[in-house]
Design brief:
Helix content: 25-40%
Strand order of the largest sheet: 3-2-4-1-10-9-11-15
Number of strands: 25
Number of helices: 18
Bound molecules: fructose -6-phosphate
CATH superfamily of the largest domain: Aminohydrolase, N-terminal nucleophile (Ntn) domain
Radius of gyration: 25 Å
Length: 589
């Protein structure tokens, strides 16, 4: 939800910042901008559109500057437009502010500042920060910054420039991610590490309620409450820069689908952590999986996995959990947060509330060092590598592998399965990587997508473990193709949706697993009888998947559905990496 960036050093900041924005574009892409200091003035180059479009219009190579801040936007307050694009300046063009998050009290702040004579240019919540800085600045930049932060309500990651002190960038964080990249005689600021990975892998992660400044050879961070200077740890990013690039694929999404076999083996590396989490969950009266979107679908699969072993559990979307389910939680409950980015606002809030209630909170997270990874008592990383396409694919596979392992460890320690059965399933799980490779090499799915790209309505149906697969298949299609797609428990079709089935509707029936096969067969007959184009995902279906243990079917069944959604999006001439209205990391509520 918006990417912010900052640079100070000997390179040309407008060019470095546009490079960084291109790597951050998955966080938002309705407008982009850079503000930099040159000739003792703040210079602004920003516009509506994708980063590459704005870059080619504003030509950053025409400018020279060693310090700047930048922003790629996912609109919350104010339509996408040049004037609403960040960064934002104050009345006198002394400050430039790049912000990710939402200032919840911006209406009252704006009213007060207007009464004091400030003139606002944009409809954004962010602009109040520039005017607050102008109002509070009496010659001491850090004091003005702290006074401004003190009155802000809501969430923020900030990078702020002042023309009067052109050797430093101010930074602050509250509930939106912010990382400093450390170089030699240069430093970087970004919402996420891929932004500066070609330049440095050494980082400092800011925590909530921390603020400070970055100079080209110095970083200082303070506690916002006490004002005390903090000793921040440096860490190293283990990803390779190539992992965050397209490597010859047309889209990140296709590259990331092709990386799904590796996502299996990578997630298996966290077995020690998963075993530990299982030991802490053992004996809890209830296990909750809490997440949003695709990660929630993984959590729902986790619930069916545990139920299969006779262990009670629930999967709840984080935005509901935080306001209701959490009231029923106590120290006898175990909560597993699931998140690719580790920065999803609702999941973070749900985890914090659950901890306040005394529950044990663990996490299955992809991004190392992210907020959720640091919030939980124990974390198991999925190690899927950077996921850049907005639609989550390989990270979902990583989450499913981790949840399968967690379910196996928990049922072994709770004596719900024998050691022999545990070992058999572990061995099968390791072999899933090869089975996914086989699905990926089947060209048939593209032909099926070509036939279906003209259709307008899609139903995905499945039962138990593959009901979440149906939800996830539908979510993937709707988010990148803008078609109407719904996931349904197959048994529910006759309770309503059957009414809209007709020739023009596609039904994708996820049948595999020799699990409730007769029941699925009846549902398939019901859809065929209404002349719907019915595609069956099965070992012998039109969409073929290899044979695996019933418990592992969600892992192979989703793979052709990822490809199906990708091809439909491309056939419709859309950009699957950057679906309209969406952003990769949802850091606002
Ligand atoms: C869909 C998708 C989203 C995310 C959701 C949670 O393809 O990517 O539904 O799954 O926003 O994000 P994370 O996993 O980062 O918490």
């Amino acid at each position: 939800m918006c990417g912010i960036a900052g640079y100070i050093g000997e390179r040309n900041s407008p060019e470095v910042l546009f490079d960084m924005l291109e790597r951050l574009e998955y966080r938002g892409y309705d407008s982009a901008g850079v503000m930099f200091i040159a000739g003792r003035k703040i210079n602004i180059i920003k516009d509506k559109g994708k980063v590459s479009e704005v870059r080619s219009r504003v030509k950053p190579e025409r400018y020279k500057s060693d310090i700047g801040v930048a922003h790629t936007r996912w609109a919350t307050h104010g339509v996408p437009s040049k004037v609403n694009a960040h960064p934002h300046a104050d009345c006198k063009n002394l400050f430039a502010v790049s912000h990710n998050g939402i200032i919840e009290n911006y209406v009252s702040l704006r009213r007060e500042l207007t009464l004091k004579g400030h003139k606002f240019q944009s409809d954004t919540d962010t602009e109040v920060i520039s005017h607050l800085m102008e109002e509070n600045y009496k010659g001491d930049l850090l004091t003005a910054f702290r006074e401004s932060l003190d009155v802000l309500e809501g969430s923020y990651a900030l990078a702020v420039l002042c023309v009067k002190e052109p050797n430093r960038i101010l930074i602050a964080r509250k509930e939106s991610p912010l990382i400093v990249g450390l170089g030699k005689q240069e430093n970087f600021i970004a919402s996420d590490a891929p932004a500066f990975m070609p330049y440095t892998k050494e980082i400092i992660i800011l925590n909530d309620f921390e603020y400070g400044f970055v100079e080209k050879d110095r970083v200082e961070v303070f506690d916002l409450v006490s004002g005390k200077k903090l000793k921040k740890q440096k860490s190293k990013i283990t990803w390779d820069v190539k992992e965050a690039e397209k490597a010859g694929y047309h889209h990140f999404m296709l590259k990331e689908i092709m990386e799904e076999p590796d996502a299996v083996s990578n997630a298996l590396k966290a077995s020690g952590e998963l075993k530990k989490i299982a030991s802490r969950l053992k004996g809890k009266k209830r296990v909750y999986f809490v997440a949003c979107g695709t990660a929630y679908h993984a959590g729902l699969t986790g619930k069916y996995l545990l139920e299969n072993f006779g262990i009670q559990s629930e999967a709840v979307v984080a935005s509901e959990f935080r306001y209701s389910t959490v009231d029923t939680v106590d120290k006898d409950c175990g909560i597993v947060l699931i998140s690719q980015s580790g920065e999803t606002a609702d999941t973070i809030a749900a985890g914090k509330r659950a901890r306040e209630k005394g529950a044990y909170v663990a996490g299955i997270v992809n991004v190392v060092g992210s907020t959720i990874a640091r919030l939980v008592e124990d974390v198991a990383y999925t190690y899927s590598g950077p996921e850049i396409a907005v639609a989550s694919t390989k990270a979902y596979i990583g989450q499913l592998v981790s949840l399968t392992q967690l379910a196996l460890y928990l049922s072994l320690s709770s004596r719900k399965i024998s050691v022999k059965e545990f070992e058999r399933l572990q061995k099968e799980l390791k072999g899933v990587s090869g089975k996914i490779k086989a699905v990926l090499s089947d060209g048939k799915i593209r032909e099926i997508a070509e036939e279906c790209a003209v259709k307008k309505t899609f139903f995905y149906i499945g039962r138990t473990l593959n009901y979440p697969t149906a939800l996830e298949g539908a979510l993937k299609l709707k988010e990148i193709s803008y078609l109407h797609a719904e996931g349904y428990p197959a048994g529910e079709l006759k309770h309503g949706p059957l009414a809209i089935l007709e020739e023009d509707v596609v039904v994708i029936a996820i049948k595999t697993g020799r699990h409730l096969e007769d029941k699925m067969d009846s549902n398939i007959q019901e859809t065929k009888a209404r002349n719907a184009r019915t595609l069956i995902v099965a070992e012998d279906g039109e969409i073929k998947v290899p044979r695996v243990d019933v418990l592992l079917t969600p892992l192979v069944n989703i793979v052709p559905l990822h490809l199906f959604a990708y091809y439909i999006s491309v056939l419709k001439g859309l950009d699957p990496d950057k679906p309209r209205n969406l952003a990769k990391s949802v850091t606002v509520e």
